[in-house]
Amino acid sequence: MSVAKENLGKVAVLFGGVSAEREVSIKSGTMVHAALIKQGVDAHLFDPAERNVFDLKAEGFDRAFIALHGRFGEDGTLQGALELMGVPYTGSGVLASALAMNKVRTKQVWLQDGLSTPLYRVLPRGTDVAAVTDEIVSALGLPMFVKPPHEGSSLGAGKVETADELQAACELAWKYDTHALIEQCVEGRELTCAVLGHGETAQVLPIVEIKAPEGDYNFHNKYKGNDTVYVCPAELSAEQTTAIQAMVLEAYRALGCSGWGRADVLLRASDDKAFLLEMNTSPGMTDHSLVPMAARTFGIPYEELVVKLLCDARLHVQRTVG
Predict the structure, then answer these.
(1) pTM for the complete prediction?
(2) CA angle at residue 293 from 290 to 299, to 5 degrees?
(3) Is 239 annotated as a binding residue?
(4) CATH topology of domain 120-184
(5) How many whole angstroms separate alpha carbon 8 and alpha carbon 154?
(6) Mean pLDDT over residues 120-148, rounded?
(7) In the annotation, is 289 catalytic?
(8) How many of the other CB atoms lie within 10 Å of CB of 319?
(9) Which residues contact 29 (CB under 8 A, 6 or more apart)?
(10) What's the pLDDT tens digit per position in 198-217?
(11) Which terminal residue of the chain has fewer beta carbons within 10 Å of its beta carbon, N or C?
């Protein structure tokens, strides 16, 4: 159950952390903290990389806004600690966070539910790539896309244009993870769609189209450069918009997500078929981030969005009595 703004109490903005996305998380958390302070909330920055997370309970924090991205912040581990401490938090619970953080498990859930996602293969670190390259190329075609299953912000990811490039792409992904996820490359328009809320009452925000330089929405083009163009709402037909939003909402519910999330989608140029790529359960909140952009288009300013998410913070594991 959501609480009123005046009843939020002492709030920890969890940011930084130890994942490869620390730099982005610091930007997100700093902006979230500033917005909460401006709204009169008793908010405090808290970096789990520098402090014991269990200090949250010892210091009397009433709730937490999770502005951490990646492992040990978005993957269910932190959510489990907060459940143990009884500190309500923003976003999805333990299971949904863990599922969404693992792109392979996410795909398996979506495919089980009949949702469209690119074909894929998974190679454990140390695999003899040359021995399986022909089979993978035959199954997925060229080009392909290789990424670490547990990373975000395009870290360790790369496009493979020829079979000879697969080895190097896998080695890059293995620097970040124990496995390399190899996906069929869907050529077309890059979209993203955010969801706010829980279960049957969850609400879809306007779709954003991302037009990155040379079609490469990499770490630089996401967070540092100013050449990427964002179109919100995306220029789609009413039928396309409705269908993609419905698919994203179904994908969000299939994983058990709650609070908020953002799905990345590719719209294939050849036939306008939509493919789900991944679900982010702790999306970025920087000045380049996409959820705040979609929320503004929907009529929710940044500061209002932050307070709305915090008011909806909750525990997800039912406590027994006695």
Answers:
(1) 0.92
(2) 145
(3) no
(4) Dna Ligase; domain 1 (3.30.1490)
(5) 34
(6) 96
(7) yes
(8) 7
(9) 13, 14, 15, 16, 45, 67, 68, 285
(10) 989 999 999 999 998 766 64
(11) C
Residues 151-201 pLDDT 10s = 866 788 999 999 999 999 999 999 999 999 999 999 999 999 999 999 899
Confidence of residue 220 (pLDDT cuts 50, 70, 90): very low
Nearest CA-CA partner of 243 in 78, 116, 91:
116
What is the residue-averaged pLDDT of the chain? 93
Residue 280 annotated as lining a ligand binding site = yes
* CATH value of 5-90 in 3.40.50.300, 3.40.50.20, 2.40.30.90, 2.60.120.260: 3.40.50.20
User: Is 200 annotated for ligand binding?
Assistant: no
CB 274 within 8 A of CB 247: yes
Catalytic choice (74, 183, 289, 303): 289
Say how many C-beta atoms besides its own lie within 10 A of residue 79's C-beta. 27
User: How far apart are the C-alpha atoms of 18 and 21, rounded to whole Å?
Assistant: 8
Among candidate residues 28, 92, 153, 258, the one labeled active-site is 153
Domain-by-domain residue ranges, the chain? 5-90, 99-116+186-308, 120-184
What's the pLDDT score for residue 288? 83
Q: Which CATH number does 99-116+186-308 carry?
A: 3.30.470.20
> Which residues pair with residue 195 across a beta bridge?
204, 261
* pLDDT score, position 139: 97
